[in-house]
Write a structure and sequence with these properties.
The protein has 243 residues and is an alpha/beta fold. It contains five helices and eleven strands. The strands form three sheets. Strands 1-3-2-8-9-10-11 form a seven-stranded mixed sheet, sandwiched between helices. A two-stranded antiparallel ribbon has the order 4-5. Strands 6-7 form a two-stranded antiparallel sheet. β8, α3 and β9 form a beta-alpha-beta unit. The two termini are 33 Å apart. 41% of the residues are buried.
Length: 243
């Protein structure tokens, strides 16, 4: 039986929050939450508490690199570049450093080796650039994790064509995005389906790739968790509410 990780299990440079399962439950699953570009771990720590997933410990992880120019917040990319035409930061700047940190320092050294979890019982949830980092982590596994949820996070550009050289990754993937002004385009979905065997796509009837705004938008995510998390209790009826 795996044990719940504690802060002392992790290296001091890692910034994370650990949210235990509901009282009296022993965690047999782990959900790793990865925030979006320019954010911190705090909003996803709050989300983890709202989810109240049965027999699941949640780890809200902060990206390793601060944004420049005292902008506040952190990012998952290997670099920071700006799109001159739009005056915005580029989401897709490589994920080698962050995916290696998550895979080796969080999953391999702590969750697998110290705490006794199996890859099948580890899921990742990411928003925007955090979703791209989660996808990069899944592609780094030799044994696939339990599942990936990516909101507005497509396949990183340096992973395109990966399905041409090796079998498709078997990790179940749920991707969500807006009906317009979304990074999850048809081309992005095509790239994901070349790399992953199982890709489920939910298109919200609104523009943009923001976090779920209501129960209806959150429902596909909770259904995915219900299918992929191993639990004798099931997903509590009231746990779909967010915000």
């Amino acid at each position: 039986m795996p044990r719940q990780p504690s802060s002392s299990d992790f290296q001091p440079h890692l910034r994370l929050s650990i949210v235990p399962p509901p009282a009296g439950q022993s965690p047999i699953n782990v959900l790793i939450l990865l925030h979006g570009l320019g954010d911190t771990k705090e909003p996803f720590t709050k989300l983890a508490k709202q989810l109240t997933l049965p027999e699941t410990v949640c780890i809200s992880l902060q990206a390793p690199s601060p944004l420049p120019f005292d902008l506040g917040g952190f990012h998952w990319g290997d670099d920071i570049t700006f799109k001159q035409s739009a005056g915005t930061m580029d989401y897709d700047t490589g994920f080698e450093k962050s995916s290696r940190m998550i895979k080796e320092d969080i999953i391999d050294k702590v969750l697998l080796e110290k705490c006794g979890y199996k890859p099948r019982n580890i899921l990742l949830f990411g928003f925007g650039q955090g979703g791209m980092a989660a996808i990069a982590v899944a592609l780094a596994f030799s044994t696939e994790p339990g599942g990936i949820v990516s909101i507005g996070g497509p396949l990183p550009s340096n992973s395109r064509g990966i399905g041409d050289n090796r079998p498709k990754n078997q990790t179940p993937l749920l991707v969500l995005g807006g009906s317009s002004q979304s990074l999850v385009t048809q081309l992005a979905l095509t790239d994901l389906k070349k790399a992953f065997q199982v890709v489920e796509y939910v298109k919200w009837p609104r523009p943009g790739d923001s976090m779920p705004r209501n129960r209806e938008e959150m429902l596909p995510i909770m259904k995915f968790f219900a299918r992929r998390l191993q639990s004798r209790s099931g997903v509590p009826e009231g746990s779909i509410e967010v915000g």
